[in-house]
Amino acid sequence: MKSMILGGLAVLALVAPAFAQGSLTVYTYESFTSEWGPGPQVEKAFEAQCGCDVKFVSVADGVALLNRLRLEGASSPAEVVLGLDTNLTAEAKSTGLFAPHGVSAEGLTVPGGWSDTSFLPFDYGYFAVVYDTQAVQTPPASLKELVEGDPNQKIVIQDPRTSTPGLGLLLWVRAVYGDDAPQAWEKLKRRVLTVTPGWSEAYGLFTKGEAPMVLSYTTSPAYHLVSEKTDRYKVASFSEGHYLQVEVAGQTVKGAQNPLAKQFLQFMTGPGFQDAIPETNWMFPAGKTDKPLDPAFATLVKPAKTLSFPPEEVAEKRKAWIDEWLAAMSR
Amino acid sequence: MNAPGITLDQVGFAYRDTSFLFDHRFPTGKVTAVMGPSGAGKTTLLHLIAGFERPRSGRVLIGDTDVSAMPPDRRPVSMVFQENNLFAHLSVAQNVGLGLDPGLRLSTQQRTAVSAALDRVGLAGKKQRLPRELSGGERSRVALARAALRDRPVLLLDEPFAALGPALRQDMLTIIDAQRRERNLTVLFVTHQPEDAEAIADTVLFLEQKGNSLSGNAGDFFGPLGPPAFKAYIGMAHQKLNRPAPPPKPT
Amino acid sequence: MTDRRIWAGWTALLFAGVLLGGAFAGMLFEVLRSGGSTGGFDFYLARITGFTLWQAVLSTLVSVVPGLIVARALHRQESFPGRSLLLGLFAVPLALPAIVAALGLLALLGREGLLAKPLNAVLGEPWPGIYGLSGILIAHAFFNMPLAARLFLGALETVPADQWRLARQLGFNARQTFRLVEWPPLRTSLPGVAGLVFMLCVTSFTIVLTLGGGPRATTLEVAIYQALRFDFDPARAALLTVVQLVLAGAAVALLGLLGADTDAEPNLSISARRFANGGRVQTALDALVILLALIFVGAPMVAVLWSGLQADLWRLVGENAVRRATGVSLALAAVSGLLAALLAWSLAAARHASRSRFSRALFGTGASFSLVVPPILIGAGWFMALRETGQVFTVAPVMVASVNALMAVPFALRVVRPAFDAAAARHDRLCLSLGLRGVNRLWLVDWPNLRRPLFTALAFGMALSLGDLGVIALFGSDALKTLPYLLFERMGSYRTADAAGLALLLGLLCLALMLAANRLGRDREPA
């Protein structure tokens, strides 16, 4: 299968340079461009199609990506920005640096549907509590059970002030508990071993056995299954549903001048891009893939319900909600 | 001559790739000038007697006691170094007082003794000064005052006045000679200055390179029939200093 | 006539000033342009300022006091097998990313650590781990105790050998020796060392969050990071940085009152620094202290080593990405290490040559304050300042090396300054009388005397920037991928084994650097 695609792409590559030249600058986060990330595969495939040169510029993560853009302002060389998530899109839009993508989102399937004209989704995932089966016999079956469970069974979470998953859990609790969120946090606090600045630190503590549970993604066990051949780490399925994270891309005002930007976004929705996502980015592809997902993905928890806030609401209330969280957790 | 003052009985010592063998006696109540080229082991000899170095073999005796294994503060020895005899943050009086009690808890009587010792070396008005407020000669005198106060029968001096001018050196020698007479001290005195040695030494120990040594009466050493090696050495020393040799004079 | 050395010092300060000032100017420019809100000094800020101060004071205490004890023991036991290796090991924490060190510590003291089982038995209940203030303090001590010990050891080595002999002759006991011989130089260096450690702890970020157990443990640095990252509020970030600067300034001023500027007798003994050790009890105590220090510093490193060895090291070192990152790290570290040593030298020279109290203080500690300006802020500020020029990427490597160098200057200065002062006191007059100056003096007098401390400063500077992530994270262009950056990248994509392997590589590089510096800087054996 794979070789067929590559073969097809190779043919395209022979044809392409005849009609297209030029280059495209894509800003993204680093795990996208790393050797095991989707970047190399995507770059090769797109370059073959467009006969152009794709230049990736990567920064630490989605938040850094937005900040980099804000820092560079209108003089930014970025033409396509790939890797923001829906919690950031409202703020990203307000910078005025983005132009409408002008690509049909029809082939894309994202829980809750898609209607944003500035950004296109390329993958999605759910935040989830991952637990160690060797330390937890009966995982919490709901967020409520997590909040009210045995304080001696610990969880490591991330700080919403500094990390995306941390903010995800904050929104999750808010989505489930509404205005009772502070009380829920006060209860959950007893189970929280520590609050790390980022996902890496938390997951590191978890895999070292410091805590039997960690806040991560529903797709985390897939990595362990596929790459490490172990089913030791599993996701606790929560009956209230899981909070959604959608990763998006868009073209900048500058990029709108370059036809390659739109071409790239179009390409992003197709299998040439989407095939790379599951086993490199460890997220669910938003578009159609040519090859079926690894069976490991079928074993993953499918949320009963998808929880999310509109980006505008997140942008508006984030600060107040974080203050609320701080107050509850510091008490 | 009384009972032997200091005896180094076949004392072997090695440092890095240099080894020494010392076998000497120093009579009680006499001043011995230890002379010789750099690296001949003059300072090492003093350190062995003071206890800063342990012999690899042989014995160090002071009087009849074998002190080879005795820690420095238990030995009946005071040593004055070329520099760094004083603690920079302590006053002159405190520096001297350390000779009586390292904890500086001095009785009134001891305080008086400190004052007296300083008076005797001519530092009556400078008891509360810090070392950095003193001249080089004054610092050396503080060290001598402390040595006097500790009242140990052996006094070791390692080029203590190398940095001082002739007049100041003369003063120091006078003080040392007075202390020696007063308390029948056995004094060992490392110097490069033949004049100093001539002025107060009773005997001379001349250490050559490669472990050879000569010793004898100071008068003989400085007399016309002194050992040729020694003559050559002080001749050289004088040439180096660009000064004519002093006329020989009897001690 | 102004001394040329003072000019060198001003140049060094100018460098620091431009680097920091440019960053603040960039921030200001951005604030004026987009109109930010500082958010004011609210209750939250007051609380985290309080916590920042409290944890930094305690961390400084638990680093400096044991550091002093360890330095004394190491100084008394001047030759035992493995001593220089131990001193090399003491520099490794500097180069370890905070999370690596934290995981190393947790491998011992965590809830699943090596010591958890015995502790469970002792406590009769599950060991809760070291999350909370205790964890923060232990981790900070792990980072800073060895640093303090090394710096104090340097101070003790300035005591002339004859003073030790004198102490032995006068029969000082351990307490008296400490009070009369060891304490004065230690006291002289105490404000500097404590100030340095304090600043490092004030700006602690990952350790405080990861081991702090919750947002009660929040430092100003976290808030600065938050302001720049999620809130994108340069005005607030700048305000918080100013608060941090004021805190550090007050602390340094207070510490300055503790110390006394006692200039020792300028003539240092040139005889071999050998003196017989104290009694057996003393030796046993020293051995115990050194052993405890070795366990405290070494055990987490063994944990790092152990998990590093689980990684597929051969594959890792064969990877192009790893090789490239190692090259980039080493190149950046070499440039910033050299720059740091040079800056430190200039500052030490200027401080020595200047007469007024103020300029001495300025040259002596002025550059230290760069430590409490977060690298991410310097990066962001310059980014804003340069964005109109479109030259941001061209200057990124220069920026990274410069910022790292500046961060290393306070360390380098601690090493170079005492040696410089001692050497200058010994040779100044002689050089003056012989008319030795300029390059001749540099080559014939200063270099031979300062090569050892300068090499140490270089190694410190290199180790420090080997472990740096701060500036890079923001500039993050693929051309500047360093080892710690790569480490985080692997960690962020589930590749914990790779990350452990890279941590090991980083530690080994740092150790090799320190040992090489030791060897290169060693005085030539006397003939």
Describe the structure concisely for a colleague.
The complex is a heterotrimer of chains A (about 325), B (about 250) and C (about 525). With about 325 residues, chain A is an alpha/beta fold. Chain A has helices at about 1-15, 30-35, 40-50, 60-70, 90-95, 145-150, 165-175, 180-190, 200-205, 220-230, 260-270, 270-275, 275-280, 295-300, 310-330, and strands at about 25-30, 55-60, 80-85, 100, 120-130, 155-160, 190-195, 215, 235, 240-250, 285, 305.
The DSSP helix count of chain A reads 15
CATH superfamily of the domain at 43-310 in chain C: MetI-like
The major sheet of chain A is characterized as: 12 strands, mixed
Query: How helix-rich are the residues of chain A, as a percent range?
Result: 40-55%
E-strand count of chain C: 0
The main β sheet of chain C shows up as:
none
Biggest interface and its residues per chain? A-C, 62 and 55 residues
CATH topology of the domain at 43-310 in chain C: MetI-like fold
| Amount of beta strand of chain C | under 5%
Measured as a percent range, the helix fraction of chain C is over 70%
Work out the radius of gyration of chain C. 23 Å
The CATH class assignment of the domain at 43-310 in chain C is Mainly Alpha
Mean pLDDT of chain C: 81
Principal-axes geometry of chain C comes out as: globular
Estimated radius of gyration of chain A: 20 Å
Structural class by helix and strand composition of chain C? mainly alpha
Quote the distance from N terminus to C terminus of chain C: 42 Å
Structural class of chain A: alpha/beta
Can you tell me the overall shape of chain A?
globular
> How big a fraction of the residues of chain A is strand?
15-25%
Organism (chain C): Mesorhizobium liriopis
Subcellular location (chain C): Cell inner membrane; Cell membrane
Protein name (chain C): Thiamine transport system permease protein ThiP
Membrane topology (chain C): Multi-pass membrane protein
Describe the protein in words:
Chain A: Keywords: Periplasm, Signal, Transport. Chain A: Belongs to the bacterial solute-binding protein 1 family. Chain A: InterPro entries: SBP (IPR006059), ThiB (IPR005967), ThiB-like (IPR005948). The complex is a heterotrimer of chains A (331), B (251) and C (527). The N and C termini of chain A lie far apart (57 Å). Helix content of chain A is 41%, strand content 21%. In chain A, strands 1, 2, 3, 4, 5, 6, 7, 8, 9, 10, 11 and 12 form a twelve-stranded mixed β-sheet that branches. Chain A has helices at residues 2-15, 30-33, 39-50, 62-72, 89-94, 143-148, 164-177, 181-188, 199-207, 220-228, 259-268, 271-274, 277-281, 295-298, 311-330; strands spanning 23-29, 53-59, 80-85, 98-99, 120-132, 155-158, 192-196, 213-217, 233-236, 242-252, 284-285, 306-307. With 251 residues, chain B is α/β, with parallel strands linked by helices. Chain B has two domains: 1-76 and 152-251, P-loop containing nucleotide triphosphate hydrolases (Rossmann fold); 88-151. Chain B is built from eight helices and ten strands. Chain B has helices at 42-50, 92-97, 108-120, 136-150, 166-183, 194-200, 218-222, 228-241; strands at residues 4-15, 18-27, 31-35, 57-62, 65-66, 77-80, 154-158, 186-190, 203-207, 213-217. In chain B, a hairpin with a 2-residue loop joins strand 4 (57-62) and strand 5. The relative contact order of chain B is 0.16. The model of chain B is unreliable at 237-251 (pLDDT under 50). Chain C has 527 residues and is mostly helical. Chain C has a domain at 43-310: MetI-like (MetI-like fold). Chain C contains 22 helices and no strands. Chain C has helices at 4-34, 43-76, 83-89, 92-95, 98-109, 116-123, 133-156, 161-169, 174-202, 206-212, 220-229, 234-258, 280-310, 313-318, 320-353, 357-365, 375-386, 392-434, 438-466, 470-475, 483-491, 496-521. The longest helix of chain C is centred in the last third of the chain and has 43 residues, at 392-434. The model of chain C is unreliable at 260-274 (pLDDT under 50). The interface between A and C is large, with 62 and 55 residues.
